[in-house]
Design a protein that fits this description.
39% helix, alpha+beta, 633 residues
């Protein structure tokens, strides 16, 4: 048992530099030179090497290590004083300090058996959990129903388009699943929630179905089953955990590549994925199936990959890079065999009556370095920027209690999911940093100027999602709540800011010269859908409410939708109040840039509105400092 545990610990230690080297190689290989399908296979090869590394330290596989090990053992035991004779009293002495040699020898007692028992027990529980997930999923498949008649044979059509000969069944579940998923390897099926056929148009259903069919065409159901078993057995292994995360990412990107190759509309598919994420937010998927937007699908990264036109999106394995990559991994594995033994469990010898203590110098404590004081940033005065003098600081109200937890990279979410909000408490889950700012300063995102280099080209701030909870008094006003969020950002995220008035280029939305044509319409009580946008290859269609139940919407929501397509801010200068019924169809290619003339003509003829490009003074909040890692609770 000691031999096995020693070999395993040495293998884990060695796997860390091996995995780092493999990560660097993949990181330095651009995605325009290596597609996701090939990266996926390379990652499985890395995983195989990591799992077999402990075998190099077992006695039957470590003949080439025998000499170094014997030398290390002799060096360790040579300085020991003679053992006392039986008729002499046993004396315990301490040898002089000396250099530490490899391997690090640790006396073995009962603790190795305890560690193995804990490992076996935890793995057994995780495997049991996995088995239960498979059983539940199979029961859900058995309770599912056939899809509408026009979709009965759609699953086989999706698979045939993915060049697969497998047979698949398309099934519909009512409320038992949160989102679409591909299940297998027994009775391979594609499961859809029933509500998806009402909430998504046919083009998006095809895109989602092609993604799930790609999982089955690639036999991901078999690979996922093996992956989940490995995760359960090696749940504590840092290298295995990292490799599993990368496998999840590359598997989803490879299936996205199928959709892009078969449809040719990456932007529309990216929009479809974000809508699926919004619809399925907060619902945990099954461990036994591949869901299109679960927590492990890296949705933000996938959307960035879809919008990257330089990336290689082929679906076939690239043989030459694959052979070169595996050859490099084998070379790395061969190099690993030359590494010395780092750790060794030694069974104590009863006759040894002396102990060797190697004194270790205490590590001095390092005083914390205070953060430098904030330096005021000077903005050159010109005709486009007016710097307002900072008012004298006034104390802002604060939450009674507050806590924040950084989540890092999570599923793509618009805003935060409010779990519980009362008169005396707020509780947000997976709230985006920009949404926190919008709660402190309620205004459009384009009026915030973030620190240089913080935003990506697509406007995202990576790894900026949080869980936030706070309490306040029952008589807190909305204005005081905004100020509490401001002080919360200052205290926890070290936010400092100032206001500037800048000349900003915008589209002004106005009533057309021939008068308003859209009609006022009420918003039903409890309505959750504000508007619906359908973007096909040649058409942009927006309707207030939903296609099956159109109703009114307010102008700020309409302006938000136009801003998302225009690329420039759209400001409301109509002066209209209340809610209106809006049904707008524009001949527009969503994959090309905004065509202002086309949208202007459609707005004038269908709604009696118009847009004009203007440069207007706009009050901007300049974020001078923002630490994305919050201060500890």
């Amino acid at each position: 048992m000691n031999t096995f545990l020693s070999a395993f610990i040495n293998g884990v230690l060695l796997s860390i530099p091996v995995t780092i080297a493999a990560w660097l190689a993949l990181r330095l290989t651009p995605r325009r030179a290596l597609n996701a399908a090939t990266r996926y296979v390379v990652l499985w090869a890395i995983l195989l090497i990591v799992l077999v590394l402990p075998a190099l330290y077992l006695p039957h596989a470590a003949i080439h290590r025998s000499a170094p090990m014997s030398q290390a053992i002799s060096q360790t035991l040579a300085p020991l004083p003679p053992i006392a004779e039986p008729d002499e009293p046993s004396i315990t002495t301490t040898s002089p300090a000396r250099s530490v040699t490899l391997p690090f020898s640790v006396p073995a007692g009962r603790w190795p058996a305890a560690i193995l028992a804990i490992w076996a027990g935890a793995s057994l529980l995780l495997l049991l959990r996995l088995a239960v997930s498979w059983i539940i999923l199979e029961r859900r498949k058995a309770r599912s129903t056939a899809p509408p008649s026009y979709l009965v044979h759609r699953g086989d059509a999706w698979l045939s388009r993915c060049l697969s000969t497998r047979r698949v069944t398309l099934r519909v579940a009512t409320t038992e699943i949160g989102g679409p998923m591909a299940t297998g390897p027994w009775r391979p099926s594609i499961l859809f929630p029933a509500r998806f056929f009402d909430e998504f148009p046919g083009e998006e259903i095809d895109q989602i179905g092609l993604h799930e069919a790609a999982h089955l065409a690639r036999r991901d159901d078999y690979a996922l089953a093996l992956q989940r078993v490995i995760e359960a057995v090696f749940f504590f292994h840092p290298a295995v955990r990292w490799i599993m995360r990368q496998l999840n990412l590359e598997r989803e990107i490879a299936c996205d590549d199928f959709v892009v190759q078969l449809t040719g509309v990456p932007r529309l598919y990216a929009s479809c994925l974000t809508r699926v994420a919004e619809v399925t937010a907060g619902i945990r998927p099954s461990l036994a199936a591949a869901a299109v937007t679960d927590e492990s699908s890296h949705l933000t990264t996938r959307v960035e990959m879809l919008l990257d036109k330089t990336r290689l999106t082929g679906t076939r394995l690239m043989k030459v890079p694959l052979v070169a990559g595996i050859a490099g991994l084998l070379s790395l594995g061969a190099l690993a065999t030359e590494m010395p033994v780092l750790f060794n469990l030694v069974t104590p010898v009863r006759a040894l009556a002396q102990t060797v203590n190697v004194p270790v110098a205490p590590v001095p404590e390092i005083a914390p370095v205070p953060k430098p004081a904030a330096v005021a940033k000077l903005t050159p005065h010109n005709e486009d920027v007016q710097v307002e003098p900072a008012p004298s600081p006034a104390p802002l109200p604060r939450f009674t209690t507050s806590s924040v937890t950084q989540l890092g990279q999570v599923r793509w979410r618009m805003g935060g999911a409010v779990v519980n909000t009362t008169a005396t408490s707020i509780d947000y889950r997976q709230i985006y940093i920009k949404s926190l700012f919008a709660k402190a300063w309620p205004m459009p995102f384009y009026q915030f100027v973030w620190p240089a280099g913080m935003e990506k080209p697509n406007g995202n701030i990576p790894d900026a999602w949080y869980d936030v909870s706070a309490t306040m008094s029952a008589d807190t006003t909305p204005e005081q709540l905004q100020q509490m969020f401001q002080s919360f950002l200052a205290d926890r995220f070290k936010v400092s800011s100032h206001w500037e008035t800048r000349n900003l280029e915008v589209y002004a939305l106005k009533v057309a010269s021939d008068g308003l044509k859209m009609q006022q319409a009420a918003i039903p009580a409890g309505a959750t859908t504000s508007y619906y946008v359908r973007a096909a290859n040649t058409e942009w269609h927006m309707i207030s409410g939903s296609p099956k139940a159109p109703y009114g919407m307010e102008l700020p929501q309409f302006v938000t939708a136009l801003t998302s397509r225009a690329g420039l801010p759209v400001v409301d200068e109509t002066g209209l109040e209340g809610s209106y019924s809006i049904d707008l169809t524009v001949a527009d290619d969503p994959n090309s840039s905004w065509n202002a003339a086309t949208f202007k003509a459609a707005l004038e003829t269908q709604l009696g509105l118009t847009i004009e490009k203007q440069t207007v003074p706009t009050k901007m909040l300049i974020i001078d400092n923002l630490d994305l890692t919050p201060v500890a609770n």
